[in-house]
Amino acid sequence: MKTAQPSWDDLRILLAVHREKSFLAAGKVLGVAASTVARRVDAVERSLGRVLVHRGNDGTRLDPDALRLVALAEELELGLASLGRDGREAEVSGTVRVSLSEGFIRPLVSLLARLRAKHPALLVELISEARVADLARGEADIGIRIVRSASASIVSKLLGRASTGLFASREYVERRLPGARLSREAAGQHDWVGLDASLERLPQEQWLRKYGATRFTFRSNSAIAIEHAVLAGMGIGVLGVVQGTSLPGLVQLDTEQAPPHVDVFLAFHRDARKTPRIKVVAREIEADARRQIR
Question: Under 8 Å CB-to-CB from 30, ≥6 apart: which residues?
């Protein structure tokens, strides 16, 4: 039997469920009841003959097949938005300040370069610092965070959950970890690269100690410094899986338990949505991040 092709309205529903992680929240964004969202999702699943959305106590999760549809929806959304901007490109001008930790610099700079090609009048200031810029006070326009803001004036949108892993240099693995497998029992025999005391409460740092890491040969509050220390063979460290696997010379270790994932949030002041340049940059960051963070 030939299955019906999803319409733009169907794709909008899936996109909202993916972004908001629940039928109730998706319904609020779309201006419809949660029951309407559920019925529309059920109808799409029946037409395609497979489950797309998995329901759980902690919210909804999309099947890999549905994520491909979400990616298509994001492309259509951006395309429709660009059509709506025809004749008004001059509005996308001025400076946008983005605050983020060093670990997000490489992918964001690549995105901003592409965005500048589309909007030549747009200027960008990148604020990379361990301290979190105060968006409510206007220290930055947009923030990429690993914690949700507690301020009522700040919108925090979950972009995704970035997987992390243990990585070591190829030289370190060949010398001290044949097979690239590290058990909990053997963790105490190895050198480690970790965050300094100011960040030791972060989940990934706490996990290292529980896994058995004791001998830290290098510490820093800089994500780039930690990356380079691992590359230089100074020890084993926790890196984002996308980050670590993209770096030649690093090997991801097989472990008994995976390090905790990192929630990534896009944050901006509620009033910023009225400013075209901030709205455009925030939208493009969100779309790009949702394609990369799974």
Answer: 12, 13, 16, 37
Q: Is 250 helix (H, G, I), strand (E, B) or coil?
A: strand
The reply to whether 2 falls in a domain is no
Q: Please give the full DSSP string across 179-236, using - where no structure is assigned.
A: TSEE-TTTGGGSEEEEE-GGGTTSHHHHHHHHHT--EEEEEES-HHHHHHHHHTTS-B
Domain extent for 31: 8-83
Chain segment 170-222, per-residue pLDDT in tens: 999 999 998 999 999 999 999 999 988 888 888 889 999 999 999 999 999 88
User: Where on the phi/psi map is residue 180: left (φ > 0), alpha (ψ -120 to 50), or beta?
Assistant: left
Domain contains 65: yes
Please check whether residues 168 and 256 belong to one and the same domain. Answer: yes
Residue 30's CATH number: 1.10.10.10
Residue that is last in its domain, among 53, 83, 113: 83
Burial class (CB within 10 angstroms; exposed 0-12, middle 13-18, buried 19+) of 120: exposed
DSSP secondary structure of 109-173: HHHHHHHHHH-TTEEEEEEE-SSPP-TTTTS-SEEEESS----TTEEEEEEEEE-EEEEEEHHHH
The reply to whether 1 falls in a domain is no
Residues in the chain: 294
pTM value? Answer: 0.62
Number of domains in the chain: 3
